[in-house]
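Subject: Re: docking follow-up (magnesium ion)

Dear J.,

Thanks for your patience while I sorted out the input files. As discussed at Tuesday's group meeting, I've set up the holo structure prediction with magnesium ion included as the bound ligand rather than trying to dock it afterwards. The sequence and the ligand SMILES I used are pasted below, so you can double-check that they match what you have on your end before we go further.
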Amino acid sequence: MTKSHLLVDLDGTLLGLDIDRFLPVYLQQLAAFVGEAVRLPDFSPRFMSAVQAMVASRTDGSTNEEAFYARFRAGLAQEESKACDAAFSSFYEVVFPTLRQQTRPMPGARDFVDAARRRGYTMVLATSPVFPRFVIEERLRWAGIAPQAFEAITSFETCRYNKPDPKYYEEILRSQAIDAGAAVMVGNDLRDDGAATRAGIAFAFVEGSYAREQDPQGSPVWRGSMLALVRAVEGGEAPFAD
Ligand SMILES: [Mg+2]
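The structure tokens for the complex came back this morning:
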């Protein structure tokens, strides 16, 4: 089937970010900033427990945001909860932008997005939906890419499943009315992005220094560097053929 939709990963694919290095710095800075602002003695374990609840498989239909806050706010007084919300907001305003230093633009990423748009693909940013939408858009800008390039962006406000659960991909297909056979998932992770194959989606594996090959969940139909990907899309190579 002709491919008309590209699902595209962000971290390690469009943005040079090593998630194993970035996450500890991010979590440590968040805990330090918010923990200090709200003086909640159990902030760190409470936050980490809420993250666990957010990424766990659920059957209750809750979004990642709902699952996170249900756990995070459990037992908190209303004022404490409000103080935390304010502290999270100022963290993302004041501290998060400084984490850009932990990342670098990915050579070719912007050319890839431009080439895909020129060739008429509809694109969904299929990034791990554990962040608020505006935080994902901020990282896209770090990558030099306008959020408007994407028809949809998965984020914690709307998603109910996480990579590598195939339901994460099925939810994208359903909500965007995309036929699995018309889509290609582009990503740097054989587990998280390769899991798209379990939803019937072809997978293009972006190799290079950010590639993650542990626990593969599916075989790529295409593999190569980001620069090779630009050429493949521009040249209409399979699976990007017309
Ligand atoms: Mg990635």
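A couple of observations from a first look. Strands lie at 5-8, 15-16, 104-105, 122-125, 152-153, 183-187, 202-206, 222-224. The CA atoms of residues 29 and 95 lie 8 Å apart.

Let me know if you'd like me to rerun anything.

Best regards,
T.
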